[in-house]
Predict the 3D structure of the following.
Amino acid sequence: MQWLQDPSHINVDNLNSIRREVSRHFRNKKKEYLKAKIGELETNSTIKNIRDLYRGINDLNKGYHPRTDIVKEEKGDLVADSHSILVRWRYHSSQLLNTHGVKDVRQTETHTAEPLVPKPAAFEVETAIEELKIHISPGSDQIPAELLKVGVEYFALRFTNVLILFAKKREII
């Protein structure tokens, strides 16, 4: 605060010394934490607690990932204390699970859905054929991808018609 109010040479030096002290403090804390973790891993290794050993190794490899427990209220304000977060989640869950306005399921209107799959266009089938990988073994139909790619215009129209007929038979178009 002193440096912000008066950016003189003395205040800059004070700020830098405070930063160095804080960095040194957190470096020491990190070393203590790592020593404790390594000691815990050694203990798990000696007592043959393999599950906790590997879990600890994975935690060390992943590193530190800070978590924030902050939730937005309905108004948009941020809430950080645990009691308010629980209250907010309880309210949110009740709003999701308790539907108001629908008294009986049989009274709701049913709407017919549009076709699930639109009719395929010839250019879509053509691009799908062009994207096939070559020099791989053919599928159960024993048609190599190279053959389909050579006659892409010929096969695209026929495959499109076959797909439309198949979809009509299955009633998905």
